[in-house]
Design goal:
The structure holds two protein chains of two kinds. Chain A is mainly α. Chain A contains 17 helices and two strands. The two termini of chain A are 26 Å apart. Classes of the chains: A mainly alpha, B mainly alpha.
């Protein structure tokens, strides 16, 4: 398939996604779709580190939480004092005009994203020096420590959480608003990552994944690339977090913001399920996972988390290549065409020679 | 930090914290030694380690609720967890032994979630503990209290530790495990069934965790979702102590126990878990700094 063929696919996919809210049958499920876009964002941002660079992070959830709290705090402090807000949060909600709401949301998400990049750069300078399983377990500790810290910090509501402002009526229903918000976010993230993977950056982080010492010895500034990769991942994750806080309205420090055992693990699982280190893998993995999870919720109520644990074991042990990875191994030629990057094709041919 | 003044004015409090910490730390040593064993022999980092501890606690709790003294739970939990460990090895772990480390981390993470949720379904999410019915010992004019059950737990740990050392030195299986740890391929050529050795190692590790869990439920509390903290503690202890050195593991575990008690007292008990995970990050970073320095010398 050539360039214009791919273009057609993208355009068709975009139109299909945009048409979802127009289908009457699907309208009650718009929030579900918003969650799906969030899942896709999770998997894509994790894959920057885990898939493309080979740094398996369990702590990316930190940026999600940072973005969420930063957004909520900016929204709160922009138009209220803390006391005022604590009072209205209990009973009736603080009423904001649409302009105020959107200003607060965008300023908050911007602040959160910048903050997450700073956090990624600062943490990265130390933690990205760790290798392999030390990195994995260190980031695991990081995510949980952040949650515990947030549960003890009064300014951001401590253990009792933080309530975000409600969406003003003038902006319409929650469903379509967040549907489009997350859709736009997911599409932008996908486009940026696609662009990054296709260029020098993608080659550099793939080199780090394949052999970091060699890449370093050949003059690649490995630490610089690693930090930038983490910042990219954190940036988009913080934007997601900021909007997600407004979607769920209530921010709990350990169950929503720094939800390591749920979101933190899901993002890893989704990326692996779809095929880590591929462009489309995380998207497909997240979609399959989200549907599976909803089925679990519906049919296995009470046991769904048990089933989820089982799913992780089964996927990791029997299906480590993931869906896209498996397809690629099965039909490499055809696949080099479908997944569009030049780098991918080079890699497939290299694997063939080996 | 207000509690720091209390400590300075009444130094006897620090004796209390130290004793409590050392006794709790001895329990960590059991789980940590299991982790070092697994890491050394099979090159697996077991994230579900802490959940075996908690499961051992629930086994003991079940006995306790049936009217049996919880101390009997120690051997029973060890045996039950030995079987559970064997089953988990046969079902999952043997498929990931020779593979990428991350696969084993994630697979055991899955097992961890599975066990947590099963325990939550079966035993409920409440915080529970088993009363041993033993009293307290008072020292220094009643200023320091030591509960006898913690001393008993310490004694149990010592006994298990000695038994382990003897097992690895004297028994055929112990020798086979050590041989496999040194060089699995050579061991296989010498006629050792390494698959059996791995199964034994994994089951033994689970049994150690089970015994530790039985002690935890008597001296402290258990809850389905706090297993991960024990995993992280074990990991930290092993990182500090290194593999295959039981004395270092015990020393590091006691140190961690004491550090945690002091941190909980100074920062407040709500930050204890946060402290454990924060300490992990710090320890790994410091370790990496030292390693880097060594690398520079080699250049």
């Amino acid at each position: 398939m050539n360039g214009s063929g791919k273009m057609v696919i993208y355009v068709v996919a975009a139109i299909a996604a945009l048409l979802i809210p127009q289908v009457p049958m699907l309208q009650p499920y718009l929030i579900q779709f918003a969650f799906l876009w969030v899942m896709i964002l999770f998997a894509m941002t994790w894959d920057v580190m885990g898939g493309q660079m080979g740094y398996n992070s369990f702590g990316n959830i930190v940026f999600f939480g940072v973005g969420m709290y930063a957004t909520a705090v900016v929204q709160r402090d922009l138009y209220f004092t803390v006391e005022e807000y604590a009072n209205v949060a209990g009973g009736e909600q603080a009423a904001l005009t649409p302009v105020e709401y959107l200003t607060g949301l965008s300023l908050g998400m911007g602040t959160g994203a910048v903050l997450a990049v700073v956090v990624a750069a600062v943490l990265g300078s130390g933690i990205l020096g760790l290798r392999g399983h030390y990195f994995a377990i260190c980031t695991l500790g990081l995510g949980i420590a952040a949650g515990e810290l947030a549960s003890g910090w009064d300014y951001i509501g401590a253990g009792s959480g933080l309530v975000t402002p409600l969406l003003p009526d003038a902006l319409g229903e929650r469903g379509p608003f967040f549907f489009y918000l997350f859709l736009v976010l997911a599409v932008i993230t996908f486009a940026v990552l696609k662009r990054l993977y296709a260029g020098q950056f993608g080659l550099a982080i793939n080199a780090i994944r394949d052999d970091e010492d060699k890449a370093d010895a050949l003059g690649l500034h490995a630490t610089r690339y690693k930090t930038v990769a983490w910042c990219v991942s954190g940036f988009f994750l913080a934007l997601t977090g900021g909007a997600f806080g407004n979607l769920v309205i209530f921010i709990d420090p350990t169950d929503v913001a720094f939800a390591g055992p749920t979101f933190g693990v899901w993002m890893v699982l989704m990326a692996i399920l779809g095929g880590k280190g591929t462009l489309w893998g995380p998207v497909i993995g997240a979609t399959v996972f989200h549907i599976t999870q909803e089925l679990f919720w519906t049919y296995l109520f009470g046991w769904q988390r048990v089933a989820l644990g089982l799913l992780i074991v089964v996927v990791v042990v029997f299906f480590p290549l993931g869906i896209v990875g498996w397809l690629r191994e099965r039909w490499p030629q055809r696949f080099g065409e479908v997944v569009d990057e030049e780098a991918r094709r080079v890699q497939v041919s290299l694997e063939g020679e080996r | 930090m207000g509690n720091l003044e209390i400590l300075l004015q009444a130094p006897i409090f620090s004796v209390q914290l130290l004793i409590d910490g050392l006794l709790v730390g001895s329990i960590f040593a059991l789980a940590a030694y299991g982790m070092a064993l697994l890491w050394g022999v099979m090159n697996i980092i077991n994230i579900s380690q802490g959940d075996y501890v908690i499961l051992g606690g629930y086994v003991t709790l079940t006995l306790y609720n049936a009217g049996i003294h919880p101390l009997f739970g120690v051997p029973v939990a060890a045996v039950v967890l030995f079987i559970v460990g064997w089953i988990i090895y046969r079902a999952v772990i043997f498929r990931v032994v020779d593979r990428d480390l991350f696969i084993s981390i994630l697979a055991t993470f899955g097992i961890s979630i599975l066990l947590q949720q099963l325990m939550d379904q079966i035993f409920g999410a409440d915080i529970q503990s088993a009363e041993s019915g033993l009293g307290q010992i008072f020292l220094f004019d009643n200023q320091v209290t030591v509960s006898q059950i913690k001393l008993v737990a310490f004694a149990v740990v010592v006994v298990v530790g000695v038994a382990l050392v003897l097992f690895f030195k004297k028994s055929r299986m112990g020798q086979a495990i050590r041989a496999t740890a040194q060089n699995a391929r050579a061991a296989r050529l010498m006629g050792i069934n390494t698959d059996r050795v791995y199964a034994m190692t994994f089951a033994l590790n689970a049994a150690l965790c089970g015994a530790a869990g039985a002690l935890v439920v008597m001296t402290w509390v258990i809850q389905p979702f706090i297993g991960l903290a024990y995993t992280i503690r074990s990991f930290m202890i092993v990182v500090v102590a290194g593999l295959g050195n039981i004395a270092a593991v015990v020393a590091a575990a006691l140190g961690l126990g004491a550090a945690e008690q002091f941190a909980a007292f100074l920062l407040g008990a709500e930050f204890q878990i946060g402290f454990v995970f924060g300490l992990l990050v710090v320890i790994l970073l410091v370790r990496n700094m030292f390693l880097k320095r060594q690398r520079q010398v080699l250049k």
